Amino acid sequence: xxxxxxxxxxxxxxxxxxxxxxxxxxxxxxxxxxxxxxxxxxxxxxxxxxxxxxxxxxxxxxxxxxxxxxxxxxxxxxxxxxxxxxxxxxxxxxxxxxxxxxxxxxxxxxxxxxxxxxxxxxxxxxxxxxxxxxxxxxxxxxxxxxxxxxxxxxxxxxxxxxxxxxxxxxxxxxxxxxxxxxxxxxxxxxxxxxxxxxxxxxxxxxxxxxxxxxxxxxxxxxxxxxxxxxxxxxxxxxxxxxxxxxxxxxxxxxxxxxxxxxxxxxxxxxxxxxxxxxxxxxxxxxxxxxxxxxxxxxxxxxxxxxxxxxxxxxxxxxxxxxxxxxxxxxxxxxxxxxxxxxxxxxxxxxxxxxxxxxxxxxxxxxxxxxxxxxxxxxxxxxxxxxxxxxxxxxxxxxxxxxxxxxxxxxxxxxxxxxxxxxxxxxxxxxxxxxxxxxxxxxxxxxxxxxxxxxxxxxxxxxxxxxxxxxxxxxxxxxxxxxxxxxxxxxxxxxxxxxxxxxxxxxxxxxxxxxxxxxxxxxxxxxxxxxxxxxxxxxxxxxxxxxxxxxxxxxxxxxxxxxxxxxxxxxxxxxxxxxxxxxxxxxxxxxxxxxxxxxxxxxxxxxxxxxxxxxxxxxxxxxxxxxxxxxxxxxxxxxxxxxxxxxxxxxxxxxxxxxxxxxxxxxxxxxxxxxxxxxxxxxxxxxxxxxxxxxxxxxxxxxxxxxxxxxxxxxxxxxxxxxxxxxxxxxxxxxxxxxxxxxxxxxxxxxxxxxxxxxxxxxxxxxxxxxxxxxxxxxxxxxxxxxxxxxxxxxxxxxxxxxxxxxxxxxxxxxxxxxxxxxxxxxxxxxxxxxxxxxxxxxx
Length: 843
Hints:
eight-stranded mixed β-sheet; alpha/beta
């Protein structure tokens, strides 16, 4: 009941100090006693059980049953062969899942919240897991509370405790003592783990961590990174079920036909099981998980931490990016963009005025007003004159002036808004007109414009300086300075890439509409005609959801908006069917980040609350990183789609070949072990290579548009059936011809090798949906994934024991070469189809 004790008691109990926090020795003792600050997760599956898990499915059960029956009927070799294939399948599945788990574990480590603690008198940023009871937290609005803590000092503190109490309004917090029997929602001096500080700042002493916190005591709390099926995996399960139904139907038909031919029940049973195995790409869910995990790891190397794997799928479908301006599209630093000086000699005096009328410093990267820092950088190298007096900036004057020592008295330098400086200057009509023209040009570009001027005074009493009105007159105009927050170097090219790939970029800013328009034009978000493309927060407040949903399709800039407006914008775009990525950094951005299809938080400037509400965190706060992540998401989306296309078309061909040979009254070309082997070597290696296909250069720029919500569209189904039928026709034509002109074992041997070659060569056309193989970069992993199975095929054929086991004979090199040439027909036709489609689209 820590809330009922005074801070002094608590500091004594935990061996901590109100000013210095824990000493290193005290921290080490607390760590030893309490351990890491995390919630107990479900026990991690050991490598042994992960391997054992590979055999806990219906298909493996059927295979083991078949092996058992074979062994019972004294078919020991068949039994051992089936068992060996089961083990091989298990090893491949184990390796895939182990890699996926390792990637997920690394992802989890990346997404761990941080905390600011005071230890030995110094503020340190540490992982939340490293916080121990007795640590002194330093907190500010937007921080994610990592442990239960008692408030020691607080200024306007309020916390969102909805996760604990269900209370939607923030709860005010302050230091003090409350009664021991006070219920959870009324402990005003306590901050609780997994809640968020919505306002204020202060210090709090950690009193409970891990499972001892209030959140740790809540039954049924799920681990935030618990592995679960992604939407894609659920869709794949449905397709696999449909394929299983087709396989079962074929099993029944083939079983009846084979029975009428007088085959034994064992042969029919073994063939049926083999067909069932051939029908289902059972390793597909694991391959998808591995592909997503690899994409997450690649994104983390490009400064985008994806907190949930299924977000990668959503990234692939993103067609709208709503982005903040400052710090994301722009550098966040004020810079002098343009300077107007009526004459060259004025430039030196202008620099002198910029340095004199300045209270900022360039030390340690710059400190002070950002505008004044920008002026110092512009005039860098100009020595600062000795100031005698300063007439500080006042909002009603909109200017500041200083007096500096000069040879013949003092010089007065003034800096301020042009409308405040120019009327005080002596101008010719021509000079005034030129200055006003430049002012308008700067204003239209969204620049913040400052004017600088000077005059000389012979008499100046340092002890009794005159009023500002007596010196700020008869000034000589030195020039105008245009200051703005410049775009990041990568921003303009990234926006251009988005446009070419069908992704709409919407800028959301608190700037004045004119400034927002100018910056949006500079960035390439809007063109010269901005009619209907800009909306203000005031307009947002006056229209309803239906009206916004109708108008939002044309709006590319939202100006003078608050974080609360972001939620309305997201909802309107989503209502129109868009997949929306939304950036944010503050506490108030959290609802919009949660609502967005992809919430993107800032890793540097953002609050911990925003990061926890998001799907992705940018470690460099850069818009270009979002574009890279969308590119990666779309690329992996395509990789998985093509991997599925490869596996399903091959599996469908196996079913059709067996069905076709049975219906034609011919012997089935494959013994059960052959089908199992084909599935092992053709499904495993190439599918992994396709799923891990690297992102091609300028992939996003060359892609036609966002990926469809479902893989299984009309084009997907057409190509799958086309390839499956081509493979079936070629396979059965060769098999039937060899049956008529030669012996059955030779025909079966050629059919066996041909189907392996057909499947392996098919993978070459699956590396890209639109580009032919010669246009793609060399992929060593894919080449190996084809060569290794071919080597295994040759090994099978050259070994007499394996020939006997698979009931095949040895064929010569010329026949192998001919079979490979025949296997190139489907892949060549698909590649030709890509060429024709490209010419048709670019005619």
